[in-house]
Each structure stands twice: as structure tokens, then as C-alpha cells.
Amino acid sequence: MERLYDVDNLTAFRASKDEFFSEHPQSPLTYEQRKAFRGLAYFPPNPALVLEVDVEVFSEQTEIEMQTTTGDVQFFMRWGKIQFEVDGQPAALTIYSNQHGYFLPFVDALAGHETYPAGRYLEPEPLPDGRLLVDFNYAYNPYCAYNDRWSCPLPPAENRLRVPIRAGEKLFHR
Question: Is the pLDDT confidence value at 4 over 90?
Fold first, then answer.
């Protein structure tokens, strides 16, 4: 039996994010962008992309340097790998970790057309049984998608998907 997806929580989250972007002094938008801002564009809720996945935790967790949009680097641990299906097509992504928790940067087949060309992010949530909750409906653009003053990690080659992820935030039109 298919579990019902809580669209109300997602809708409230998106409304709160739009309010933050339009009102808050720490918004990633410039003052000029905020004056014209009418909300972010999102894919409709997609319950099929709410995944509770097993993680193949790497026996050796190595620190990597993740390049950023400004040429700097940020450090993450290669923590584990998840495998899943999107519309019947196999997909796999590497989960990274740092002092803030789990980090899942990815680029999907829609990049540059419907989603931000440099990729989107997620923070998977640990479940009590050791699996991770990966809800692509919460996939978001990094702040550098809104203006160039931000430095954002670029998803490594191993996190480039050939499948489309039709969930979460869409491309921001400046």
C-alpha cells in the first residue's frame, strides 16, 4: 500500500522559504532581486521521489576536496553510497558528511534546462533503522544560483545522474 505524502508540510516549507527569500536580510537575493521576487519555482510534489534507502557505508571514509563555484575548495568525507530507481531507471549517488551532517549534492538530467546547471543539494535524514530518508521534493538550489557573490560546492562527477529528478526546486530565472 502506498504511503500518503504530507503535501501540507512541503507547502508550508516552500511558503516559509519564499518569505525568507523576499523578507530576510540574510536572503541570498540582492535587494534588486527581492523587489521583483514572487516566489521560487518548484516541481509539483512527487511522492515517488521520497525514498527510504539503505546506505552502503564506505569501509574507508576518505576526505575529499570539493571544488566550489568560485574556485575555492570545501572538505567533506565520502561517507556512503545509495542506490535507487527513478522511473524504472537505476541511479546511485554518494553521500558526503561534515560537521553539519549528511550532504547530497547532485546534478540530474534536467540541469541547465529545468534545474540549476551546477546542481542541487539535499541533506538526507537518518532513520531509526539505519537507513536514510532522501526526499527529493526538498532538493534546493545552492545560493550561488541566485547571484555570484556566493561560493558553493560543485557536485563531484560521481553524483551526476543521467535520470531526471522532477522534484524540488527548479531553475531560478534572474
Answer: no
